[in-house]
Write a structure and sequence with these properties.
The protein has about 70 residues and is mainly β. About 0% of the residues lie in helices and about 50% in strands.
Length: about 70
C-alpha cells in the first residue's frame, strides 16, 4: 500500500489535507461549517498499487481547533 492523503481545495485554490471531525456538521455563516471545540484528526490514506483500493484512517494525532 502506498501512503498518501486526501486533498481539499478551499477559497482561492488553497490546498490542505482532509480532516475527520467529531459529531454532526453544523452550519456556520462565516466558515460554512462549525468545527471549534470538536475533536479533529488529519485523514491518512493508503492506496493499493495494483487495484487502486483506498483505506483511510484518522490517527490519534490531534489538530488544533480552528
Amino acid at each position: 500500500m502506498q501512503e498518501g492523503y486526501l486533498l481539499e481545495l478551499g477559497s482561492y485554490n488553497t490546498r490542505f489535507a482532509s480532516s475527520w471531525v467529531s459529531g454532526s456538521p453544523e452550519k456556520s455563516f462565516l466558515t460554512g461549517t462549525k468545527v471549534k471545540g470538536k475533536e479533529q484528526y488529519t485523514i491518512q490514506s493508503y492506496r493499493c498499487l495494483s487495484c487502486g483500493y483506498l483505506e483511510s484512517y484518522a490517527r490519534s494525532t490531534k489538530e488544533p481547533d480552528a
